Structures are given as C-alpha cells and as structure tokens.
C-alpha cells in the first residue's frame, strides 16, 4: 500500500508540473480573488454564508481563476460559507486559508470536501520577517523553514493544490526569503506568493524585489508565482501592475479594494488597466470586464462598505460631469472626455449633472429629455436659475421643471424687445 501511495503521489506531481508549465507558457495572468476572505476582514464588512455565495457566483461569471473563500479554522460560519460556495460554483479553484497548523489543514479538508480534487486547495502562511519571527512566533529562521516544509508535506497528503506565502515577505531579508521559497517548492508547493502584508512597497521596489526573487530561486519555474499587495500607501494597484510586467503568474485582489486597514489591490482597477494596455501587461484572459460595475455594486451592498463616489471604474462620478466644456464634448463624442465607455465595465451610462458649472448644451439636452423645446431664451433662463440655487441642491426632474416654469414666467414678464 505504501508503494502504491508513493507511486500515486509521484504521478500527481508529474501532472501538476505539466499544469504549472502550461500556465507559465500561456503568459496569461490568473486572477485570484480574496474578497470573501481578506476583503471580509475589513471592519464592518462581515458577510453571511449565503451572501458569500452570491458574490462567489458573480466572481465565477466574471472569470476569476480562483476564490480565496475563507479561513475555516476561524469560525463555523466560514466553514458553512465554503461548503455552500463549493456547491454553487464549478469553474474557479476554491481555496481556504490555513496557518502552518495541522488542525487548520484538517478544518480546510472538511470544509472543501465537496469539491473535486483539482478544484480545491489550501493557502498556507507563516510569518517570515524579523518582526514576525521574534515577536509573533518566537522562532528561528531554521524553525520557520522546518515548520513550513513539514506542513506543506502534510497538506499534500490531503490536497493536490498547496500554496505557500511567507507573511510579511516584503520586510523579510531577501536571501532568507529566497531560501524559504526554494525549500517550499522542493517540498511540493504548487504556488508561492510574495506578500506586502503592511503595504510598504512602491512600484520600483516591488518590481526589483520580484525580479531578484525570480533570479534567486533556482526552482521557481516549478511553481506558480503570485503577488498580494495591501494599499496602505495607495500603491497596491501600481505595485501589482509593475509585478505583472515582471511576469508573475497570479495576482490576488479584492473587489472594490476592500480589506485590512487601507485595503487590498482593487481587482477592477487592475483588470481595466490591463484591458487598456495589453502592450504593457499582456492579455486579460477570460475576465469579462462588463461584469465589473454590477459586481462592485453588489459587494458594496452586501458588505455595507459604500463606494467612494470617485472610485475608479465603479464610482458614481466616473461617467458623470458638471463642467460645461466637458458636457459639450461628451454630447458631441463621449470619447472626448472618457478613457473608456461605460458599457465596457457594465456601467449604466454617461450622466450630465446640472449645476453651477454647467453650460447651455447640457441644459438644452436635459430640456429635450423632458420634452421641452430648448429655445435660446429658455435655456439662458434655466441656466441663470441654476446658478442662484443654494449649494448642494440636487437638480432632479422636479427641480428642473420648477426652473423651467420660473424661467418661462420671467420671460413672459419681460417687455418686448
């Protein structure tokens, strides 16, 4: 029996290496979404199991490669959510987060038991930086390596897909980090991840570090290489794109960039940047950008975390303008003042907001929408009325009708020319 099991594991290793080589040769970045795990860790963003399922189904439609679905050892709610997600989706690989503890891996095995072997996996993590080694784990470099490789071996007895990420990798000594990756890959890790856990890197340093890791880990081609950035300096998207240019295989993101502290890399921002600049970042792959805005709105609704009105891709003002010059240009050709059309990301359309900065073209357009003939005199009268409104007044259809009435009355009281 032992010989049979050994033979079976070797055969699986060969198959996994073929899959890894296929993904590497394809040159397409794989999106791993962690909205349901790291995103949910944002204070106030807790999701119920059925809400996680709704988001997971939409992420599958979007075309993500894998879902970081939860941390089974943390709560029964996470276990329930993962079980339901496994039943609801078929295409993405569903993974669970685990510390380097056998109990965590066992909990993940239980939660993911309903998934096919090639569609389930675990993501192991262990602190690697001097701060984590000394103050959090009280372990030496050698002990961290031994703990990591031992737990990878244990996880491989239950899962075909085993990822490993050193926590706080961006503040770990580079030679030691490379050694840790090398040992993890030799132990059988199918993916290794570079984590900027506290979001301290800038694009140049992120790019340089990733390049040096690829040069310093001789067996890096035997695993997929992933990156995971936090947004504490507002640079998570820029850092991710810089690493894509260094040919990383997997990027981990969240919808709306939600997550710990200042959040994670925003999936929708990386996706639209890649779709607009394939010459820089390569093909977007199977991701359907028309699903982005509805998904952003769903995540905001279910987590209770509002979208900033100027949030790239999905914010309310992305396709709205009050400026007269811009409104005039948009009416003539939307591309004059838009980087991309609303339909490209599934947004509802362009909004010409009436306000103190608006011009005659926008007012005339709105009057036509009301079925009112936009005579020059009426347009000027409405525009004059708009500029006298108190700050913050929302000019909706009712308000505009009042302005039309007032402008008409004012025009009627004027003496003939």
From TrEMBL:
CDD domains: DRE_TIM_IPMS (cd07940). Keywords: Acyltransferase, Amino-acid biosynthesis, Branched-chain amino acid biosynthesis, Leucine biosynthesis, Manganese, Transferase. Residues 29-293 form the Pyruvate carboxyltransferase domain. InterPro entries: 2-IPM_HCS-like (IPR050073), AIPM/Hcit_synth_CS (IPR002034), Aldolase_TIM (IPR013785), LeuA/HCS_post-cat (IPR054691), PYR_CT (IPR000891). Signal peptide: none annotated. Pathway: Amino-acid biosynthesis; L-leucine biosynthesis; L-leucine from 3-methyl-2-oxobutanoate: step 1/4. Its EC number is 2.3.3.13. GO terms for molecular function: 2-isopropylmalate synthase activity. GO terms for biological process: L-leucine biosynthetic process. It is an enzyme of class 2 (transferase). PANTHER family: 2-ISOPROPYLMALATE SYNTHASE 1, CHLOROPLASTIC-RELATED, HOMOCITRATE SYNTHASE-RELATED. Belongs to the alpha-IPM synthase/homocitrate synthase family. LeuA type 1 subfamily. This is 2-isopropylmalate synthase.
């Amino acid at each position: 029996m032992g010989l049979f099991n050994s033979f079976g594991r070797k055969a699986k290793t060969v198959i996994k290496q073929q899959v890894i080589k296929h993904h590497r040769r394809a040159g397409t970045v794989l999106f791993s979404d962690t909205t349901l795990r790291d995103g949910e860790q944002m204070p106030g963003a807790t999701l119920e199991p059925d809400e996680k399922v709704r988001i997971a189904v939409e992420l599958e439609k979007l075309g993500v490669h894998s879902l970081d679905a939860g941390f089974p050892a943390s709560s029964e709610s996470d276990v329930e959510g993962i079980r339901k997600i496994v039943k609801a989706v078929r295409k993405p690989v569903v993974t669970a987060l685990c510390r380097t503890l056998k109990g965590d891996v066992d909990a993940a095995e239980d939660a993911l038991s309903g998934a096919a072997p090639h569609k389930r996996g675990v993501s192991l993590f262990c602190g690697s930086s001097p701060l984590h080694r000394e103050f959090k784990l009280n372990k030496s470099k050698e002990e961290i390596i031994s703990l990591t490789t031992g737990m990878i071996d244990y996880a491989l007895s239950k899962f075909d897909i085993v990822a490993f990420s050193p926590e706080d990798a961006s503040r770990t000594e580079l030679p030691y980090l490379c050694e840790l990756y090398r040992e993890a890959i030799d132990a059988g890790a199918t993916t290794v991840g570079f984590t900027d856990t506290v979001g301290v890197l800038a694009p140049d340093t992120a790019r340089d570090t990733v390049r040096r890791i690829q040069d310093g880990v001789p067996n890096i081609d035997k695993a997929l290489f992933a990156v995971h950035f936090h947004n504490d300096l507002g640079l998570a998207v820029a850092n991710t794109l810089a690493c894509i240019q260094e040919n990383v295989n997997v990027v981990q993101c969240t919808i709306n960039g939600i997550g710990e502290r200042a959040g994670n890399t925003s999936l929708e921002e990386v996706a639209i940047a890649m779709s607009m600049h394939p010459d820089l970042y390569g093909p977007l792959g199977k991701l359907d950008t028309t699903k982005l805005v509805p998904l952003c709105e769903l995540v905001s609704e279910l987590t209770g975390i509002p979208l900033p009105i100027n949030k790239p891709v999905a914010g309310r003002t992305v396709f709205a303008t009050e400026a007269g010059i811009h409104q005039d240009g948009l009416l003539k050709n939307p591309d004059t003042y838009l980087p991309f059309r609303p339909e490209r990301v599934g947004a509802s359309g362009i909004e010409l907001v009436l306000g103190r900065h608006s011009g005659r073209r926008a007012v005339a357009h709105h009057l036509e929408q009301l079925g009112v003939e936009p005579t020059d005199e009426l347009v000027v009268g409405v525009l004059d009325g708009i500029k006298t409104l108190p700050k913050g007044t929302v000019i909706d259809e009712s308000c505009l009708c009042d302005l039309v009435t007032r402008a008409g009355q004012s025009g009627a009281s004027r003496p003939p020319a």
